[in-house]
Fold this sequence. Notes:
This is Mutator family transposase. Required for the transposition of the insertion element. Keywords: DNA recombination, DNA-binding, Transposable element, Transposition. The structure is a single chain. The strands form 2 sheets. A 5-stranded mixed beta sheet has the order 6-5-4-7-8, with helices on both faces. It has 18 helices and 8 strands. Helices cover 52% and strands 16% of the residues. The longest helix is centred in the C-terminal third of the chain and has 26 residues, at 398-423. The N and C termini lie far apart (113 Å). Helix 6 (147-167) packs across helix 17 (371-387), helix 10 (281-293) packs antiparallel against helix 11 and helix 16 (349-361) crosses helix 17 (371-387). It has 424 residues and is an alpha/beta fold. It has helices at residues 14-25, 27-51, 98-103, 107-118, 126-130, 147-167, 216-228, 245-255, 265-274, 281-293, 297-311, 316-323, 326-329, 331-334, 339-345, 349-361, 371-387, 398-423, and strands spanning 63-75, 78-89, 94-95, 175-186, 189-198, 203-211, 237-241, 259-263.
Amino acid sequence: MTRDITPAGSPATGAVDEAFAEVRASFDRFCLAAGIEALGTMMEADVTAACGPRHGRDAARRAHRWGRTRGRIGFHGGKIEVERPRVRGVDGREVTIPSWETAAQEDWLGRWAMNLMLINVSTRRFGRAVRLPEGDVPAPPGSGVSKSAASRRFVALPAARLADFMAADLSALDLLVVQIDGLHLGDDLVLVAAIGVDGEGNKHPLALVEGATENAATVQALLDNLVSRGLDPTVPRLFIADGAKALSKAIRRTFGSAATIQRCQIHKARNIMERLPKEHHAATRRVLRQAWELDDADKAEKLIRNLARRLDQQWPGVAASILEGLGEILTVVRLKLPKDLRRSLACTNIAENMMGTIRRVTRNVKRWRDAGMALRWVAAGMIEANKGFRRLKAHKQLSVLRAALQARHNRMTTNLVAHVTRAA
C-alpha cells in the first residue's frame, strides 16, 4: 500500500502553475510587455520632468504635452511599434524624450546582425534566427528582419568598425613581433593583413590593405599605414613573412636595420614538398625538421646545404629553391632563442589561425563585388578572431627576444658606422 506523504493543509498551487504555463507559452510576449511597461514608466518620468505634473500649473515648466504617436524600437533583432508621448517646448518645437531616444538607437540592431553574420547565419535566414515561426511576436513589413535590412545593417557597422580599425593609434603598443600574410579572395583580389605580438605575448590585429596581387606595392601600402599610425620604424622588431620576396623587400625598405626577418619554415617546407616526387618527401622532411630543431645555426645551414647538394643533380630547381632565402629561414636560430620560443616564431601560425577564422566567417559569400566589400568582411573576421586570441605560449621568454633583437641592431649599427668611416 502506498502511503500519502503530502502534508495536510498544503496550499493549492493551481493558480501559480497556470500563471507559469502562460509565461512559458508566451515568454517573448511576456518579456515584450514587461519591457514596454518599463519604457512607458521611464518616458512618463521624462515628460513629467519637462512639463511638470499632469494638469498642474507649474510656471517653471519648459514644455507641455502634445498627445501621443507611434514609433519603432528594436526587439529580437528587428523593430516593433510602441506608443510614445510627444512633448513640445514653449517655442513650439518638438522636445526629445531621453529614454525614448536611447531605446530607439539602432546600433545594437546592427551588432545583432553582425554577430549572426559572423556565425554564418545568412541574411535570408536572419528573420528565422531572431523571430521563431511558432513565436507570437510577429514580423510585419517594416520590422527590419528582411534580408535587405539585415544586409544594410551589416554593411554599415563593419564599415564604421573598419574605419576605426584602420585609424587606431599603434604608438602605445610595445610590439616585438609583426606577422604579415596574404589572403587570396579572387584572381585579381588579394588582402594583406598584419598581426602583432607585444612584449607580454598578447596578439593584436594591426592593419589590412587590398591589392590585385601580393606585390611589393601592396605590402608597402600596409607598412606605410602602420608607420603613419605610430609604429616606430627605429625600434628593433622581428618580422615573420610567408616567404614572398615582395614582403622582405618592402620590410627592409621601410624599417632598415631595425627589421629582423624570419621566413616561415612551414611555408618553405610546403613549397619544397610540392615540387618533389613522393619518394623524396620523407627524407627531405626529416632533414628539414632536424635542421629546424638544431640550436647551432651553422650546423643547421650545413644540413640544408647538404640536402640541396644531394638533390641538385636530379632536381636542380628544387635545390635552388631550398637555398633561396636560407639566411632568413634560420633567423630565430641565429638569434639563439629558446626552443619553445623558436617554435612559436619560426612560422606564421598566428596569422594563419586568424586567416582560418576569416575563411569561416566569409564562407557564405558567393561573390566578391568589390574590394570595399572584401575589406568589410575580412576586417569583421579579424575582429572576430581577436576575441579568441590567447597569449603566446612562450610569452615568458619574450625578454630574450627583445635583448637579442637589440644586440643585433647595435652590431649592425656599429658595423655600418665603421664602414662609412673607412669609406670616408
